[in-house]
Amino acid sequence: MMTNILPRSHNIDEAHDRLREWLIPTPVLQSEVLNARANSRVLIKAESLQHTGSFKIRGALNRLLQLSHEERSLGIVASSSGNHAQGVAMAASWLGVSAVVVMPKDAPEIKQLNTRALGAKVILYDRYNEDREHIAAKVAQETGATIIPAFDHHDIIAGQGTVGLETARYAHSEGLNLDALYCPCGGGGLIAGCSLSVQSIFEKCRLFSVEPEVYDDTKRSLEVKERQLVDGHPVTICDALMAPTPGALTFAINQETLTSGITVTDSQAAHAVAFAARHLKLVLEPSGAVALAAVLDGSARSFSCVAIILSGANIDHKKYLEILGDYPDP
What pTM does this model have? Predict the structure, then answer.
């Protein structure tokens, strides 16, 4: 059952201790080319190299590890456009738990294939005419399965926050003062957890959520101090960042910790994907590249040292090749 208790930084420390023997301690990289383009020293948290190619395994596994034996025996159900789906499926496979994942029919093929390959049962739905939460709730009611939310849960937020904790600990160990953090934002779980963990080490660090411009709900919500909704179903190549409104728990944290929200265009996200391929030698999906896009656009120029989170690498090969062709000299 979802709790409405907000996590604190010590919960993220506990999650890190719980998860570290399971997960990859993804590297923090630096690039002279990026530093010159951004006019700032940029620490690059390459979470795209995590199991399943995304940070989502952190929150999913943190939640599953705290389920009772009885809850595990009844299985789990989740709804996701792809990265949470894969994280849930892998965590469930590691723990011997049956998993059902509700995914949109138009989710990238690689995300659907990987979720099935990890052993989860996939139920496809029409994101324009059906409600994935309703479908997942029906499965849970019929089977007794535990719902694993994509972002709006204490344990999920704490698990995702370990990305920021590792980044901040690295900066501290290098004797750096982290002025700002740029983080992709859909429902807000990653940036909420990271804001708590980073500010526990760098109290004055400024925190910026980065969204696709057509899914700017967190940015607008921060401006008016109330959760806003995206109208309709705008099209974007950032398929993992299409949450129409911030989570209740995530926004309760983010409105207290974030400096402001930033948006990037699909073109900027695609350019960042190509930049990462050429200069960082990293594969990124557009959603995972939005923080990079923000600093390439000059958002970090007033800071001495910033960190960016590259959150995902799951992109269909045809789309990837198309982007690389569109930006041959990023």
Answer: 0.96
